[in-house]
Amino acid sequence: MIFGKEKALRDEVVNIGKKLYELRLVVGRSGNLSARLDENTILITSTGSSLGSLSHDDIIKVDLKNEEDLKNKRLTTEFPLHRMVYENSPHKNIIHCHPTLINAYFAVCPELKTLTFESKLYLGNIPVVEQDTPAISRPELIVEALKASNLVVAKNHGVVSVADKFSDCLYFIETLEEAVKVAATARLFKKDVLDELDKALKENLAQDSAYVMFSKEHIQAIVDLVNKDEFIAKKGQELDLTLQLAIKLDPSTTLGAGGHNSAYKFNFEKGKIVKLDFDEDAPFIISAPADSWQLVFLGKLDPFVAVMQGKMKLKGELGKLSRWYVPFSRLFELFKQVKIK
Predict the structure, then answer these.
(1) How do strand 210-211 and strand 263-269 relate by DSSP bridges?
(2) Higher-confidence residue: 302 or 170?
(3) Which pLDDT belongs to residue 258?
């Protein structure tokens, strides 16, 4: 018999499968689940199993370093995806399923139209990976996309959600399914749906120069752009955007000398950055390694979403910072307008 941690984890897999089926996020024998038991061992649902009625016998224990385990004929065709995710990230749980509304939406729309603040905060820009086969044949594309979001859409196929808890994996999928419902319902009232916030967030400002990331010139160019922005000026006045916010490179990834700093502090007064300091003495500090900041500056990762998903760290209360969600969303959008080398 199986006891302890493994039994508890098998029970989690069974329960999340039932939940997915009850929510109609899986049907028939579609979808697969996996969970990390230890550094090299995972549990994964077998091929042909129904997630809505799993038993412990439908869950396979696999040592990722054991060649014999990797030859098990009961392994799902999506096992290479699960294996590659675990080998390239610390995540502990994976849900792969094919939600009806999400699949329908992304079959005809290239990106998510987010009409609620909840969708923007918890989902951000959902990566969409092209898919040409019934099974995910290029898992490396999914793994790369997961660097920017814990939820990825495989077009014409389904979604992959990763986290340290099955409940969080499910919340991401539920939130996306709800966002798709909102977008579809909104079209019943107005076919050409585009709110003013999205217009402001999606403006493109041409920049001829490119800067070394986190150099003084790079951050100063952002400051100049922010202080010229009418949307931030307006919202900054309305919401009294007056605070100190620092952005910081994690110590292990500091870019070093030659004009680079590991931290910059924006001193806001009613939406204007009145002073740029080179320290982290601030009530709010957003920190992350260089690869995450690169995704932010390239416009592939929203800092609010990254904090929610644990890809970036926030010192300070997110609830207080969320008061200025609208102008800060614009601020982070402007980050990508200043090109980096």
Answers:
(1) unpaired
(2) 170
(3) 44
Residues 123 and 131: their CA atoms lie apart, in Å, by 21
Q: Each residue of 308-323: pLDDT tens digit?
A: 888 899 999 888 888 8
Q: Which residue has the higher pLDDT, 1 or 281?
A: 281
| 205 and 174 within one domain | no
Q: Which residues contact 5 (CB under 8 A, 6 or more apart)?
A: 37
Residue 253: per-residue pLDDT: 57
**Are 168 and 220 found together in one domain?**
no
Element (H, E) at 154: strand 151-154
The answer on 205 and 181 residing in a single domain is no
One-character DSSP codes across 68-117 = HHHT-TTB-TTHHHHHHHHHHS---EEEEE--HHHHHHHHH-SS----SH
The pair of three-digit structure tokens given for residue 70, joined into one six-digit string = 């990797």
In this structure, the answer to whether residues 256 and 280 fall within a common structural domain is yes
What distance lies between CA 324 and its chain's CA centroid?
21
Residues 22 and 160 in one domain: yes
CATH number, domain with residue 116: 3.40.225.10
Return d(Cα 152, Cα 291) in angstroms, integer: 19
Token output for 122: 């918890």
Give domain status of residue 196, yes or no.
no
Domain that holds residue 261: 201-340
Residues 282 and 218 grouped into a single domain: yes
Task: Identify whether residues 158 and 27 lie together within a single domain.
Answer: yes
Buried b (16+ CB within 10 A) or exposed e, 95-133: bbbbbebbbebbeeeeebbbbeeebbbbbbbbbbbebee
Bridge partners of residue 6, in order along the sequence: none
